[in-house]
Automatic annotation (TrEMBL):
Residues 6-71 form the Biopterin-dependent aromatic amino acid hydroxylase family profile domain. InterPro entries: ArAA_hydroxylase (IPR001273), ArAA_hydroxylase_sf (IPR036951), Aro-AA_hydroxylase_C_sf (IPR036329), Aromatic-AA_hydroxylase_C (IPR019774). This is Biopterin-dependent aromatic amino acid hydroxylase family profile domain-containing protein. GO terms for molecular function: iron ion binding; tyrosine 3-monooxygenase activity. GO terms for cellular component: axon; cytoplasm; perikaryon. PROSITE patterns: BH4_AAA_HYDROXYL_2. Belongs to the biopterin-dependent aromatic amino acid hydroxylase family. GO terms for biological process: aromatic amino acid metabolic process. Pfam families: Biopterin_H. The keyword Ubl conjugation does not apply. The keyword Metal-binding applies. Keywords: Iron, Metal-binding, Monooxygenase, Oxidoreductase, Signal.
């Protein structure tokens, strides 16, 4: 028996066979912060910082500081 969740983005039901993990306490967010703060260099080509190397470097440095803070 799985879990069915309706997605507002796709207007379809998503089915999960395994239980979905959700944080119950603010400290549980420490378990997934690496997913939230990961620097993604693949900016959209129309993003204002796409051609700005200094912006991309600052963004990467800030993400690394945030990631290292909880380790």
């Amino acid at each position: 028996m799985g879990i069915r969740i309706f997605s507002l983005l796709t207007a379809k039901f998503l089915c999960f066979s395994a239980p979905v993990w959700v944080p119950y306490h603010v400290s549980d967010l420490d378990k997934c912060q690496h997913l939230l703060l990961k620097f993604q260099p693949e900016l959209q080509t129309d993003h204002p910082g796409f051609h700005d190397e200094a912006y991309r470097k600052r963004r990467q440095d800030i993400a690394q500081l945030a990631f290292d803070y909880h380790q």
